[in-house]
Amino acid sequence: MSEANILTPTGWVRGHLSLHDGRIAQIDGQPCNPDDNDLPYMLPGFIDLHVHGGGGSDIMQGREGFDTIARTHARFGTTSLLATTMTAPKEELTQVLGELGSYARQPRSDGARVLGVHLEGPYINPGKLGAQPNFAHQALLEEVEAYLDLAPIKVITIAPEIAGHLPLIRHLSERGIRLQLGHTLGSYEDGVAALEAGATSFTHLYNAMSPLAHREPGIVGAALAHAQYAELIPDLLHVHPGAIRVALRSIPCLYCVTDSTAAAGMPDGEYKLGSHTVTKCLGGVRLPDGTLAGSTLTMDQALRNLVKIGLPLAEASQRLSQFPADYLGIEERGRLQAGSWADTVTLDRNLNLIGVMVEGVAL
């Protein structure tokens, strides 16, 4: 492979990768300072744990759109992702999860690897829907078990203040499911109790959750005071750069997601988001009343945005690749080292994407 500044877990190496069966066999080269040369950057492929759609297709539209979504995000450097559902009636969720379960078991096509599912709702507070359709309801173990039988659900967004949710968080977390707090009107105390019960992250931090105030710290306060992990949308529309910096100082393993919709990678116009019709314009996606409804963000732009607000390139990469992998407990993705899947992105000196590789295959 061509020589590049390769970001490894121990620092930058000027060299190239050797591959075997889709994995990194070894990295040949010498430690370097990339500022001392004009070679491109090679980073771990981006891992996006919150993807509703892309390329004009929405996850909730079913199997026919999954390939389009995976290919679209791979074009922008996402090498693996979690397909993220919307709040919907049980029959619709059952259908989509069944199709996602089958899709995740198939050999990868020419797009990003679908690692599993992020179930965003229906176990959220109906008073904090954001752009979620109004099908929220209390989580019942029997229903969750049925969904888990259909698809590899890795993450569930849940409102901790809803009756019965704390014991469910405890039960599911013991089974290895990641429970994230989001779309919630819960108090600071609700958030702390959920973390103590086994919740592990916060869904699109700051958005669709009770805010931080000095006498009512809210769910945001619980995250900033106690969280090890939280996801955040760095499109610079959902969260002010100053608030991003607060989160960076407070949450050690803050990781970034796109919360992307069918509008990602597409021109301005109308698109589906679950049962909603949303409009892409002025760089965002909104409901008719102006509410932000997911994003048009891609992970390569997320990287550039993080660097723009002051993060070193290596740290920005870590928050788009290593930390999401660590959060899911995946050791063979999110870092470039011998034995890892050869998931890479190559960027020029202006951080424009010039190459993507998924499991050793150049796209």
From TrEMBL:
EC code: 3.5.1.25
UniProt GO MF annotations: N-acetylglucosamine-6-phosphate deacetylase activity
Pfam family, one: Amidohydro_1
Matching CDD domains: NagA (cd00854)
Protein name in UniProt: N-acetylglucosamine-6-phosphate deacetylase
Keyword annotations from UniProtKB, A to Z: Carbohydrate metabolism, Hydrolase, Metal-binding
Domain of life: Bacteria
Database matches in Gene3D superfamilies: Metal-dependent hydrolases (3.20.20.140), Urease, subunit C, domain 1 (2.30.40.10)
Amidohydrolase-related domain: residues covered: 41-361
UniProt-listed InterPro entries: Amidohydro-rel, GlcNAc_6-P_deAcase, Metal-dep_hydrolase_composite, Metal_Hydrolase
UniProt family annotation: Belongs to the metallo-dependent hydrolases superfamily. NagA family.
